[in-house]
Amino acid sequence: MTYNSLQYIAIGDSLTAGIGIPFLNSGFPEFYRKLSEHTLEKRIYLHKFGKSGATTGDILNMLDSPTVGRAIKCANIITITAGGNDLINAAKNLLRHNDKESVIHAMQQSQENYSKIIKKIQIIDKENPSILRLMNLYNPFPHIPVADEAIKTFNIAISRFAKQKNIKVADVYHVFSGKEKALLSKDGVHPNQEGYHQMALTFSKLGYAPLEY
User: Fold this and answer.
1) At what angle do helices 84-97 and 145-159 cross, to 10 degrees?
2) What does the pLDDT look like over 137-153, one tens digit per residue?
3) Could you give the CA distance from residue 89 to residue 74 in angstroms, rounded to a whole number?
4) pTM (2 decimals)?
5) DSSP β-ladder status, 77-81 and 131-135
6) Residue 131 or 153, more confident
7) Sheet strands side by side (includes 43-50)
8) Residue 206 needs a FRET pair 20 to 30 A away by CA distance; which of 8, 59, 99, 212 works?
9) DSSP states of 180-200 as a string?
10) Cα–chain-centroid distance for residue 166?
């Protein structure tokens, strides 16, 4: 596929919105666009649909928006960040009510929603399929064993999408593991600017096939 310029659509939660860094600073989508332009040597236009606090269910509903649908149809590159808020909401229930089952259930539901997100994008984008880049979850709660267990289960499920054509999954979990203090913002949940940069590098290392270099 040969294009003079490319359309990049970033869809997701606070990681796409750029929560955790000062307003107007580059977040993950902006870093990834720059890295992609450098690698592909093409102008890339970024269209960002990020909502702070969005769960996988919210992002699934976001795809029903005509504006988002039109953007997806024109996309060459799509990234999705989702699942983190499902975990955070469940972790809050765990801390308040010691409800371990809520964490397991939340991760199961988010896996189901993620599968529906992928299918819906593929239906919308069927005439001119884009490359789709997903990410697994890092763990901002390494001190909570059940959270790490749920995240690993979620990440195994997400990794299976990489078997599909034009889909790859960025392994952000291992990038952040053991480096939480260096890569997370003061809120202890969202990445700082270096964290977002490392996320973008991890996505970029997945390559861009079948887009021409």
Assistant:
1) 160
2) 999 988 888 778 888 98
3) 33
4) 0.93
5) parallel
6) 131
7) 43-50, 5-12, 77-81, 131-135, 167-170
8) 59
9) HHHHB-TTSSSB-HHHHHHHH
10) 16
Which pLDDT score, from 0 to 100, does residue 3 have? 63
- E strand or H helix at 18: none
Closest C-alpha to 92, from 141, 139, 149, 58: 141
Catalytic positions are 14, 187, 190
Mean pLDDT rounded to a whole number for the chain: 92
How many CB atoms neighbour CB 121 within 10 A?
A: 23
Q: How high is the pLDDT of residue 174? A: 97
DSSP assignment of 68-96: HHHHHHT-SEEEEE-SHHHHHHHHHHHHH
Strands 43-50 and 131-135: unpaired
CA atoms within 13 A on the CB side of 10: 24
**Length, in residues, of the chain:** 213
Give the span between the Cα atoms of 154 and 41, in whole angstroms: 35
Contacts of 168 (CB under 8 A, 6+ apart): 131, 132, 133, 134, 162, 206, 207
* Residue 1, burial from CB neighbour count under 10 angstroms (0-12, 13-18, 19+): exposed
Best CA proximity match to 169, nearest among 195, 142, 191, 199: 199
List pLDDT tens digits, range 172-184.
999 999 999 999 9
For residue 195, the one-letter residue type is: G
